[in-house]
Specification:
Length: 437
């Protein structure tokens, strides 16, 4: 019995020492390399699908870490492979694009970069307003740790540097470019997102759906133009569009179960040119969010039904009924594999401590294209978040002070060191759990 207790103590001590050594090694690498790399990425963000310099720097960093690197996958995507004996193939993704936002964070390293927006053709300010600079810096840190710890794991590690996540295009583009056919289909797929709503360095992982599915929908409303003083001679698309906007709000409130989340937001309403002209056209732009296919169908079918029949209520003939167009940029929800979540949660608690891991439901219905890496074929996957805001900032907000800025805000900022090191440590721990020696 005494020998068994001594053996258990020895195992626990070795485990604690290994965890401490990993955290210390990551902290040292942050001071010596990753901090400057993060600063570079934060100062030099690039927009979706034109992340050319970012991709080149990532390819260099991953090559120097000892990985076999392929560039130009799905546009500007990068794939880095490290084979280390028999074992599973595990993929870890980091997205790299910034946003067309002028940074107003007040940080010393705030981005002043400008770039031609491939969507509009305009030259715009660019900013890492969603934390993708944390993701790619952490991916480099992960590469350096895994290369240095080859005696601790066995298998093949695939690191993906994904373009155009903000436009929900990059994952699909890499799949269309044959990423699995060229490099192998992973046994597991992983990704994380830094979160300004989480305590810096803290891991948040759920068994359900951390990110919603999203559809982009346009409604084209046809009318009959007339003078503003003679509305009876026309069919007003602005009035009809307003009725459609209000009717759409009943989809979530009256057609979904109160416990079933869904969102229908009209983000844009364009029509008309002058005060006294009734136009002949209006254009509504919608984003529609869901957490499962049933909800998606209820919402999309309902949008089409409401738009068309409100057109009939307005007296439009069938050839002038509103047109509902669903974009092909739609993405399904991200759904974590429950068994894999439980396995990794246990590994994170053992390595990082119980206080470092939480299960807080996601607020909001943000979308992600990571699902295109985990479906067809279905690949067990986990998508977690790493907190990026110091606890004292939340305390100040709760006391009536400055609010913590959210993602996609020009004021967005996170604390780099705990975010990056938390990202590296949680990823390395997960990889060592999935690829044991």
């Amino acid at each position: 019995m005494i020998k068994r207790v001594i053996g258990l103590v020895a195992v626990l001590f070795a485990s604690t020492a290994a965890a401490s050594n990993l955290a210390d090694a990551i902290g040292k690498d942050y001071d010596e390399h990753l901090a400057a790399l993060f600063d570079h990425f934060h100062r030099n963000p690039e927009l979706s699908a034109v992340e050319h310099e970012t991709a080149r720097r990532m390819a260099l960093e991953l090559s120097l870490a000892g990985f076999v690197v392929t560039e130009g996958v799905g546009g500007t995507g990068v794939v880095a492979m490290l084979e280390n004996g028999e074992g599973p193939l595990v993929m870890m993704r980091g997205d790299m694009d910034g946003l067309p936002i002028e940074e107003k964070s007040g940080l010393e390293n705030a981005s002043r970069a400008r770039q031609v927006d491939p969507v509009t053709g305009n030259t715009v300010y660019t900013m890492h307003a969603c934390g993708h600079d944390v993701h790619i810096t952490s991916l480099v840190g992960t590469a350096r740790q895994m290369a240095a710890r080859r005696d601790e794991w066995s298998g093949t590690l695939m690191l993906l540097v994904q373009p155009a996540e903000e436009r929900l295009l990059g994952a699909r583009a890499m799949r269309d470019d044959g990423v699995w056919e060229r490099f192998g289909t992973p046994d597991f797929a992983l990704a994380f997102h830094v979160s300004s709503s989480g305590v810096a360095g803290q891991i948040n992982v759920q068994e359900g759906s951390p990110y919603a599915g999203a559809d982009t929908v346009d409604i084209i409303i046809h009318g009959v133009g007339a003078h503003g003083a003679s509305p009876h001679r026309g069919k007003d698309p602005i009035v009809l569009g307003s009725q459609i906007v209000l009717a759409l709000q009943t989809l979530v409130s009256r057609e979904l179960s109160p416990r079933e989340p869904g969102v229908v937001t009209v983000g844009s309403f364009h029509s008309g040119t002058k005060h006294n002209i009734i136009p002949d056209r209006a254009h509504l732009q919608l984003t529609v969010r869901n957490t499962n296919e049933h909800t998606r169908r209820v919402l999309l079918d309902g949008i089409e039904r409401i738009a068309e029949n409100m057109g009939r209520v307005a007296g439009l003939p069938d050839d002038k009924l509103p047109e509902v167009i669903v974009s092909n940029e739609s993405v399904p929800p991200v759904v974590n594999d429950a068994a894999l979540v439980r396995r990794l949660r246990g590994a994170w608690i053992d390595a990082m401590g119980a206080d470092a891991v939480v299960d807080v439901p996601t607020k909001g219905m943000g979308a992600e294209d990571f699902t295109f890496f985990t479906q067809e074929p279905d690949i067990p996957s986990v998508y977690w978040s790493v907190g990026g805001t110091p606890r004292e900032d939340f305390d100040r907000e709760a006391a009536g002070g400055e609010p913590v800025p959210g993602h996609h805000s020009p004021l967005f900022r996170i604390s780099p060191e705990p975010s990056v090191t938390g990202g590296v440590e949680s990823t390395v721990v997960a990889l060592l759990e999935l690829m044991p020696k």
